[in-house]
Structures are given as C-alpha cells and as structure tokens.
Amino acid sequence: MSLIPPTFLSLQKLPRIAKISVVLLLFICMISMFVGVIFNRNSSSSTLLASSSSSQIFHNSESSNESSTTQISSKPLTFWTGIDKQYSKARISEFMSKLKPDPKHEQIYGSKVMTCFTKQQHSLTCGLTNQLFELITCLAITAKVGAKKFIIPSICTDGNWGLCFCEGNDRFSKFFDLERTKKLAMERFGISVMEYEESAELLKEATEELFPLQDQTLGQKSLSEAVDIIHQKATEKPGYLNHPVINLGYVWGRWRGLDIEEDMLYVLFFDLFSPSAISRRVMEDWKWKTELDSKGPLIVIHNQIYTSNQNPNIYPGCQRTMNTDFISVYLGDFQFKDKDYRILMIGAGFEMQSTEGLRLTELSSKHKVHVYPQFDIMRTTGNHQFHNSLYAFWLSIEADYFIATTCESQFLSHIFTIRKFLGKLTCSIADISQTAYPDSYPEKYLKAENKDQVAYRFPHPYRGSFFTIDKCKFPLKL
C-alpha cells in the first residue's frame, strides 16, 4: 500500500506551470481561512466590549430603568468609608429602610428626573463638604420620593473665598469617579445618575428652582418631614409637577438627620464619592514628591486662622484659632523636633502666605520637620480653590495621623467620622468650652479641665450626631 496521498500522485502527472498554479491556489485558500478565523474572533470580542461599555450609559428612554439593574452586574464595590466595618448588614439595612417612599409620593415622582441647582452657575454651593452635603441631601430626597433618575449639578470651582458666591464651575467627573458613582447609585439606591453637562435635552423640560439660593425656610428636618415640605411647596406652584424634570434648587440643610440611623444613611450616600483618576494622580504625585524629603509618616494638621479681612464674628467660638506661630507650636507644643515627619498643613488663613513667610524651610533644614502647606498640592489661585480643598480632604482621610486644632467644621466632622470608621489615628486640641453653641454638647465636655475627649457632631457640624475624639497627647505614638 502506498503511503503517498493520491492528490500528490495526481499532481506529479500535471505540467510544471499547472503544478505551480495549483500550489498557489491552495496557498491562497489557506490564507483566506486564517484571516476569516481571526476576523470572527475580533468581531466577537468587539461585541462583548461594546455590550460591556453600553451597560454604563444613562438612557433617557422609559425602558432604561427596567433594565438598568441587569445592565450593571459586575462584582459589588466595597465601602471605602469603612461603615461596613462598624455596622452589620442588618444594621445597614435599618439605615436604608429610612428611604422607603410614601406610595402617594412615589406615584407622582416615580417617573420624574430629579436635580438640585440654583441660577448661580447651575452648580452646588460653597466648599467641598458643603457641596457634597447638598448633593447627598438631594440624592436622599430623590430616593425618598421614589424617583429613579437624577442629574448631578455642576461643581462650583471658582468664586469668592469659600465659594459661596460662584463664578465658575466644572463637571462632577473631573473630580470624582463618575462610573463608580453611577454603579453604586443604581446598585444601592436604584437611581440612574448622569451629569448636568450630558443632560441638555432633558433640562429643556426642567422646572424653575423650587428653593432659591440661601432659602433655608423650614429646613433642618428629618427626611420624611423634609420630603413632605418639599411636596407641599411643589403642589402650591401651578403646573410645577407637570414637568418631567424637577429642580429643587437650594437644598443645603433641608434634611438633617435627627437620629443615628439617618446620619449613618448619610454615610452610605457619601460612600458614592471617591477621587477621579486625575485627582488620584495629583495626590500620588504629591506624595511621591514629599517622600523624596522623608520616608517618615504623613501627618495632616487642620488649622483655621483669621485673616485680616475677616470679621471674627463670622466663625464664632472655637471655630478659628488666633495662634499663627507654627514654628513654636510644632517644635514646642507638638514636640515634632528631629522626628523626621512629613506634615501637610491644611485649613484656611495661611494660603496667601509664602513658604518663606511660614518659615517652613527653617523647619525642614534645621529640625527635620518637613511641612507642606495645602497650597503646595495645587495653588489656590487660577480657579483651583476647590481642587485644593478636594486633595487636602482625601489626603487627610489617608494620612497616617490627623490632628485638628479647631471645632465645628463640616470639613473636620467628615474627616473625623470616616477616619474613626477606618480605625485611623486621630486627635484634636480644640477647646470645645469656647463653643458658640453650648447647648450642642453634654456639660462635661464644656469644662476646660476635660483632658481626654473633644466633642464633635456629624454630618452637621454642631447639630448632627454626637461623637468624641481623643485629645492629643504629645509626643504622638505612631
């Protein structure tokens, strides 16, 4: 029996030119088959990628809400705030139960798109934690009325000191991880989220603001009461609820939790926000730069001082400190001398001074105490006031140690609460006995001789849930 294939034997009988033609034809067929296999494989991959990408997009159609829970099906994201380390799943479910809507509200608002912004740059108001406080309030109201869609207002980034008068804005996704926010808003609260800047068509059908800027009438209520007040005000305006998009306007302080369940519900919303890739890169670059000076622990110190153009009555009591001699405080009171620390000094009142004016070079060269002012991360001028505050906030959350020198700051109360949940080292030297709101604290914390604990409240800086922070003892035990 011959081992040579019959096809090969038949080819031997053909003329030379015919043999060459047959071989070329076979070669072309093989190449075509190979290209076809590769094309089909790539087409399949492209289809999968397109399907995956489209699952993250906010749709305006009525059917989008029904399918959105199946669109977002990847592994649940963890709580970066650490609230799941403090409370069981059952307890967190109790917090979430506060969001159950009244059927009469859900019938009206279930098909609405909710948002909250004023005529001032269609943005949120004031500093970082003020804007997040307002945004979270609006999200909570959205969930409580049974609405399923939400437009995130723009972020105020430029204006007067403190940003309570806004002259410039930017989109939310420049500072925060929008895809994470979208995913978690749907996963945890059943709300589809999109930015103001991608909502032009929808916003053509929006109402006028329900509450104008700084309108705080009937504010500071539990979530249920706040929603009832908002609904009543909306029904008093002819045709207001006929619009598909409801703009509540200024809602800062509209909701203030009157029990621990509502204040911890606030944390669940706060967990939706984490730094964008750009924000993260700025912070990592800054940390890398400081590590060239020292490999020591990173300590963040929050210090608020009066500036020459401020009325001392604006921030009463212990909300500001008059001590601006950082050299004597850091070397004397804090005992930082020759400890090889990296210290980020954040807060307000020193941002217009230079590194030389603050004598930071002297601290570094003579005493191995490397101090970086907040404006070292990114200058506060040139539309960077919000950026600067944002980076200072996240670095404060992540630092090895955090020290506060003042009281009743919304910025502070957020940092303290999250750091406590995460088990991070934190202390305060604030004298709460100097508070302008003595009715906010148990009497024992108002006595100057109290040397162990400092009282704070969250999320509202002097009306929220009560908690304490250890009073600083130096030298720090790191």
3D structure, described in words:
With 478 residues, the chain is of the alpha/beta class. The protein has 2 domains: 74-270, no CATH class; 277-470, Rossmann fold. It has helices at 6-12, 16-54, 64-71, 83-86, 89-97, 103-109, 128-144, 178-189, 200-203, 223-235, 260-270, 277-291, 326-333, 360-367, 385-398, 410-422, and strands at 113-115, 149-152, 155-159, 166-170, 192-195, 245-247, 298-304, 341-348, 369-373, 401-404, 425-428, 453-458, 465-470. The strands form 4 sheets. Strands 9-8-7-10-11 form a 5-stranded parallel sheet. Helix 7 links the parallel strand 1 (113-115) and strand 2 (149-152). The protein is globular. The termini are far apart.
How are the SSEs ordered, and which strands pair?
Blueprint (H helix, E strand, L loop, with lengths): L5 H7 L3 H39 L9 H8 L11 H4 L2 H9 L5 H7 L3 E3 L12 H17 L4 E4 L2 E5 L6 E5 L7 H12 L2 E4 L4 H4 L19 H13 L9 E3 L12 H11 L6 H15 L6 E7 L21 H8 L7 E8 L11 H8 L1 E5 L11 H14 L2 E4 L5 H13 L2 E4 L24 E6 L6 E6 L8
Helix pairs in contact: 5-11, 12-15, 15-16
Keywords: Membrane, Transmembrane, Transmembrane helix
